Amino acid sequence: MGTRPLLNRRLDGLGTTIFAEMSALAATTGSINLGQGFPDTDGPEAVREAAVRALRDGRGNQYPPGPGVPELRTAIGDHQHRFYDLSLDPDTEILVTAGATEAIAATMLALLEPGDEVIAFEPYYDSYAACIAMAGAHRVPLTLRAPSFRPDLDELRSKITPQTRLLLLNTPHNPTGTVLTAEEQSSIAALAVEHDLLIVTDEVYEHLAFDGAAHVPISTLPGMRERTVSISSAGKTFSFTGWKVGWVTANAALIAAVRTAKQYLTFVSAGPFQYAVAEALRLPGTYFEDFRADLQRKRDLLGEGLRAAGFRVYQPQGTYFITTDIAPFGEKDAYAFCRALPERCGVVAVPNSVFYDDPNAGRSQVRFTFCKKDDVLHEAAARLQRLAS
Ligand SMILES: *Cc1c(COP(=O)(O)O)cnc(C)c1O
Predict the structure, then answer these.
(1) What are the CA-CA distances from residue 65 to residues 69, 218, 266, 270, 380 (Å)?
(2) Which residue's alpha carbon is at the smallest distance from atom 10 of ligand 1?
(3) What is the pLDDT of residues 78-93, one digit of tens each?
C-alpha cells in the first residue's frame, strides 16, 4: 500500500478513546468500572415498555422522517417550554439525531469552514476534538483550572481572533461538574454578540445540576436564539445510553444547516426508541426531581469513599462524574495511576489529562463516575481504601 499513512491527517493523534482502553482493562482484570459514564440500572420501566409497544405496533421499524418522528419533536418542544419557557416550532426548530454525539458531529460539519477556530473548555468531552478536526477547523482550549474549574472570562476574551467562529460550551460540564451561572453565561453571550460568534451548547446533563444550582440554557438569554445551537439527549436523563436518541434545538436557519449534514451521516436512527423517548420527556416532575436527588446522593456516597481513600476531591455541581487529584498520594501522572489502579485495587477510572491539550493542566487528575448501584459504589470505596494503607 505504499508509504502514505492510511489515516488521514485530520484524525492524526485521535487514536482509540480512553474509554475503550480503560473499559477493556476493566474487563480483563475484573475491576469495577468507574471509568465510562453509563448507568448500571436501566431507566423507567414505563419508558422501556413504550419502546416495546412501538416495536410491536410497527412504529418506527422503517425509516422514520429525517428530522425525527413528529411525536418526539413535539415532546422535545413541550419539554423546552415546561422547563425553560422556550417556544420552539417542532417542524423547523427541532432536529432528532443519533444521540448528542451525532448532533455534535453534524453541527461542527455544518457550521465550520476549514481554518475556523472553535473555543472550547478543556478538559473537554473527547468527541469535540475529533469533530472539530473532522470539520478541518482548529480547537482553541479555554482551560478550566482546579480547584474551582470556573471559566476565566478575560482569558476567553483574549482567545477570540478574527478566525473564531464558534464557542462550544458544555454545562453541566463533563468531567469537572461545573455548572455555568447565569452571570457567566451572560458574559459569554455578550462576547458572542460583540464578536458575532455562534454558540453551540452541549446540555446532556441538563437535569443533573445539584445542590439547588439552576441549569440555565444560554439560548434563553436575550439575543441568543439567533446564534445558539443547543444539544441534548435522552441517554443521560433517562438512563438509556444505548438508545442514542439526541436532539438539536435552534432557529430554523441553524437547524436547516445542521440537518443538511445530519441527513448524510445517519439519515435517521432509533425509530421505535424515538416514540419511547417522546413518552419519557412527558414524565411527571417527580421523575426528574427524584433522578437528580438520587444522583446527588450517589455523588456524596462516592465522594466520601474517595476522600477516605486519600484523594483530593473536587466537589462537582452536576453530571455523573467526580474529578479528583492524586497529589496527596505523592503521585503526579494520572495516566500511569489509572493504568495501575486495576492491579492495585480492582477499580477503573480515567485520567482527565487526556481531555486537555495542555499536558500540565490536568496531569494529576482522575475522573470517577458515580452513576452506579449503591452496593457497587460501596464496594469500590472499600477497594479504594487499600490506597490509604
Ligand atoms: C455522554 C455525553 C455525550 C453523548 O451523548 P449521546 O447521547 O450518548 O451521544 C455528549 N456530551 C457529553 C458531555 C456527554 O457526557
Answers:
(1) 6, 29, 12, 11, 44
(2) 100
(3) 999 999 999 999 999 9
